[in-house]
Structure formats: structure tokens, C-alpha cells
């Protein structure tokens, strides 16, 4: 899993594809594989009752489980449904792009994703950073921000900062708004300052939380940095 | 420039709060709400009170 890449990758697509994509469905697509399942992976307490998957890793990425949400076919099916419902090619295409980016990014960890589901339930992963969702959210954060995962996220932050023009008001007016009727609709209800904040929000969220987690992991706490392949070695990583 | 400064200030505040209270960093909704308050609602309120 990734902690900031899913917030940031859509802006990289935005830079290269301009008016051929719409940022809202790009972001929804990018978040969609984990949208309804992450809380059950880490567990939550509701009225004193702890709700968590018995096997969080299997639930999140496997079958049986909801690992199919990380398959290329799932993105295709939802994009086709979006096309049917909205008749908007740009929404369907943008959603698909965002979804596939998420599914392919998560190939980077030690579990990987069932990219080829339903044709195969085998997870495909390159094992660059440890998957540690099952050890609890904070330890998972400490591990992620001590291994290659946070380096991967850092690349997207740098790429976004180099592409700063896409975050400007002028770019928003000239490229983002004309590409998607959503902004015209929202513009009747909110001032441009709020719309701009919404447009930039995921970039802000991904970047600031990356900085905060790095400080939390290595200044406030003392999680050892281990940039070896599949690291950090000190965490009880899950493997395919 | 003023706009950039408001985002930078919001970023510094969010990072500081997030380091102190990591649970704040776990919610996209809270992160977006924080940004909206910091760069839109709060400045609008201050302008109105002046």
C-alpha cells in the first residue's frame, strides 16, 4: 500500500494530459480500491466493539476478500458503469486512469495486487517495500516511512512541485474548469477560492502528511530507516 | 504571493498538528476540511469582522 502516492499521482496525469482528463474522477479512481475497505483492514471501534478483518492482508488484497478492487478488470467495470450513468467519456477515462494507477502502485509492496482477477487470484508484486497493514496503523506508518515506500511517495511530491504550474489559479481557470462541468456546478455554490482549495486539496493532503509522518517516525519516534528492497526488515511484513 | 503564504501557513500548521496528533493524518476528509477552513473560511471571516 502507499500512503501519499494515491493523493499525488493524479496531478502527474493532469500535467501530461491537461484537458483530456478531469481531476475529480481521477482522484476518485485513485482512492477507489481502498475506499470502502481500509477501515476494516486496520480495524475500528464502534460503541466498544472492535471491528477488524480476521486476516487483514487476505481481506485487503486476496480472494476471498476485497482484493478484486485492486484488479485492472474492476477499474474497467466501474469505468464502464460510469460511462453508462454519466455519458461522460472524460469521467470514465479519468476514473480508469486513477484506478489503474492505484492498482499498479500497490504492486510495489510485498503482497502486491490481484491485477489479473478474475482470470487469476495470484497477487503480483515486486516487493519493494513491506506490506504491514496487519500490524496496526501506527506501526504500519512507521514501517512505510522507513522503507522505499516513502521514497516512492517523495518522487511524486518532487514531481508535483516541479509541475507547480498545474496548481496555479490560471491553470485551474484555463484547463481544469473547462474540462469538467462539475466545476461549473460547484462554482454556483462556492467562491473560486474554495474551488481552488478543493482542486489542490489532495496535493496538499498528500504532501503535508508525508512530511508529518516522516517527522513523526524519525524525530518524535525512532523507527530505524531501512531502504533495502522489501524493507524495513524490522517489521513483520506480510508476503505473498 | 499572499495566496501561496496562506497555503504554506496551512501546511505548517497541519504538519505540526499531525505530528502531535497522528490520528489527524489518517483522514482525507479532515485534511481537506482543515485546508478549506485555513485558506477560505478563516480569511473570509477575518475580512468580514474587519
Walk me through this protein's architecture.
The complex is a heterodimer of chains A (240) and B (50). With 240 residues, chain A is mostly helical. Chain A has one domain. Helices cover 56% and strands 2% of the residues of chain A. In chain A, strand 1 and strand 2 form a beta hairpin. In chain A, helix 1 (5-17) runs parallel beside helix 8 and helix 5 (72-86) runs antiparallel to helix 6 (89-105). Chain A is globular. The mean pLDDT of chain A is 96. Chain B is mainly alpha-helical and 50 residues long. Chain B has one domain (1-49). In chain B, helix 1 packs across helix 2 (28-49). The relative contact order of chain B is 0.14. The model of chain B has no long low-confidence stretch (mean pLDDT 96). The chains are: A mainly alpha (240), B mainly alpha (50). Chains A and B meet through helix 7 and helix 11 of A and helix 1 and helix 2 of B.
From the structure above, extract its key features.
heterodimer, B: mainly alpha
Q: Would you report the number of β strands of chain B?
A: 0
Instruction: Give a quick account of the main beta sheet of chain A: strands, pairing sense, barrel closure.
Output: 2 strands, antiparallel
SS-based structural class of chain B? mainly alpha
Shape verdict of chain B = elongated
Helix content estimate of chain A: 55-70%
Strand content of chain A: under 5%
Count interface residues per chain for the largest interface: A-B, 26 and 20 residues
Number of helices of chain B: 2
How would you write the strand order of the largest sheet of chain A? 1-2
DSSP strand (E) fraction of chain B? Answer: under 5%
Could you give the topology of this structure?
The complex is a heterodimer of chains A (240) and B (50).
Chain A lengths: L4 H13 L5 H9 L6 H5 L1 E3 L2 E3 L4 H6 L10 H15 L2 H17 L31 H8 L3 H15 L6 H11 L1 H7 L4 H29 L20
Helix pairs in contact in A: 1-2, 1-6, 1-8, 1-11, 2-6, 5-6, 8-11, 9-10
Chain B lengths: L1 H19 L7 H22 L1
Helix pairs in contact in B: 1-2
Amino acid at each position: 500500500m502507499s500512503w501519499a502516492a494515491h493523493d499525488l499521482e493524479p496531478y502527474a496525469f493532469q500535467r501530461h494530459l491537461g484537458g483530456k482528463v478531469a481531476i475529480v474522477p481521477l482522484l476518485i479512481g485513485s482512492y477507489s480500491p481502498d475506499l470502502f475497505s481500509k477501515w476494516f483492514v486496520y480495524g475500528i471501534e464502534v460503541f466498544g466493539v472492535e471491528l477488524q478483518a480476521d486476516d487483514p492482508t487476505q481481506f485487503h488484497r486476496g480472494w476471498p476478500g476485497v482484493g478484486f478492487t485492486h484488479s485492472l478488470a474492476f477499474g474497467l467495470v466501474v469505468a464502464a458503469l460510469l460511462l453508462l450513468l454519466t455519458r461522460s467519456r472524460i469521467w470514465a477515462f479519468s476514473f480508469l486512469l486513477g484506478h489503474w494507477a492505484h492498482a499498479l502502485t500497490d504492486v510495489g509492496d510485498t503482497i502486491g495486487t490481484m491485477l489479473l482477477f478474475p482470470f487469476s487470484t495470484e497477487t503480483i508484486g515486486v516487493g519493494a517495500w513491506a506490506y504491514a497493514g496487519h500490524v496496526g496503523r501506527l506501526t504500519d506508518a512507521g514501517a512505510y516511512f522507513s522503507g522505499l515506500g516513502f521514497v516512492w511517495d517523495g518522487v511524486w511530491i518532487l514531481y508535483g512541485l516541479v509541475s507547480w504550474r498545474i496548481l496555479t489559479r490560471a491553470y485551474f481557470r484555463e484547463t481544469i474548469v473547462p474540462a469538467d462541468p462539475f466545476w461549473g456546478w460547484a462554482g454556483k455554490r462556492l467562491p473560486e477560492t474554495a474551488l481552488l482549495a478543493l482542486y489542490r486539496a489532495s496535493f496538499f493532503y498528500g504532501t503535508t502528511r508525508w512530511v508529518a509522518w516522516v517527522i513523526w517516525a524519525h524525530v518524535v519516534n525512532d523507527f530505524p530507516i531501512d531502504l533495502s528492497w522489501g524493507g524495513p526488515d524490522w517489521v513483520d511484513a506480510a508476503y505473498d | 504571493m499572499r495566496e501561496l503564504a496562506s497555503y504554506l501557513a496551512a501546511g505548517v500548521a497541519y504538519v505540526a498538528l499531525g505530528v502531535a496528533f497522528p490520528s489527524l493524518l489518517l483522514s482525507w476528509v479532515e485534511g481537506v476540511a482543515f485546508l478549506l477552513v485555513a485558506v477560505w473560511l478563516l480569511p473570509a471571516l477575518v475580512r468580514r469582522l474587519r
